[in-house]
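step: validate -> pass
step: tokenize input -> pass
step: predict -> running
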Amino acid sequence: MLITKCCLDKLQLEVYDSISDLDAKTWNNTLAMGHPFKTHGFIRACELALPHRQYRYFKISVPMSNPMPIGLFFGTEEKVDLASEANSCLRSLLRGLRKIRLQSGYLTVAMLGCRETSGRHWWFSNKLDSKQHIPIISRSLELGFPQAVVRVIRDLENEHVDYQLLHSQLIAHKFYRAMNYPLALISLDGQSWEQHCLRLKANCRKVLNRMTSKFLQSNWRIAHYHDQFLPMEVLYEQYLNTHREAREFKREALPFAFFKCVREECHVVISVLYDQENQARSFIFSGISDIIINPFVFGRDYYSGNDVNSYYALHLDLIKTYNNNGVKKIDLGITNYFVKQTFGAHLQRNSIYMKIGNPLLNMLFGRALAKHFDISQPRERSVFKHDDQT
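step: predict -> pass
step: emit ->
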């Protein structure tokens, strides 16, 4: 449904509350940028499975001109628990405050994009001057989420050609910067997996070959499921196991309905590792497009009776099975960076920018809030042969 329509500096802004109000083909050809889990269908699945959020979709066009948009972006609003990433002293303080007031330490946050997506969350036509991008996004978030205490713009790739310009614009609009979790990306650009591996240093190839050999000797097997019926209950329990064991980053577990909705709306591959008794021991839930492979969720049973490394075995088989001449990159997501760099992933550093809606509070506490969410960056390993060349 159309929420509001207004003018922004000779442009027309339309704000909607559902992705269903926007044309799927236009969305997929622009904002999604080929990523299987930023498509119209994926965002629709998030709406269905995670209805506690408020969703807003922003469409920019030229009044009385071509009806095609020249800008698209989206955001979500939800309550964020400050204690989820706080130190022990702050957690103790918040626990005490919540005995008096239940909502202490929760902030209503409007975020560009949503927690399940990554990368740039907007698209603008080259007809629009890049100097207008941040002012349009900032004002749109204000209009779309008037109750939000904090507004967040993410994820700005630090190595992108326009990063310094966008950074300057955000600072000018009183946003404060924090480093986010980097994405681990394998850049293939049409290479085969074998060609990619030839570029890796000997120690990385040795690890990958050893893991492959152990899997082949185990007589375990891997199956990849597309549209076939596959009971998800056991796999969901394995996902919860891995979620409970997470150390680097932990957020609320995705509900079972999320996986069901994404399977119905998107091109999904579920890769399952079976033991000799045909019992599922681990799995990957992945999005696949012509140019991007995105292993999205990994789960396992943590059984220690076999030396098959399920993480390596599943990811290697997935990549070998679905890589083709058109695949440009493999999006391995966040955390577990040491292992992912063994595959030849580079770390795409990115920043998030925060602003408290109240100008006085933003001046007093905005910088401290950003620092609270600032992530210590993992080390970039030297994994390619040419890395040591000068």
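step: describe -> The CA atoms of residues 274 and 280 lie 5 Å apart.
step: cleanup -> pass
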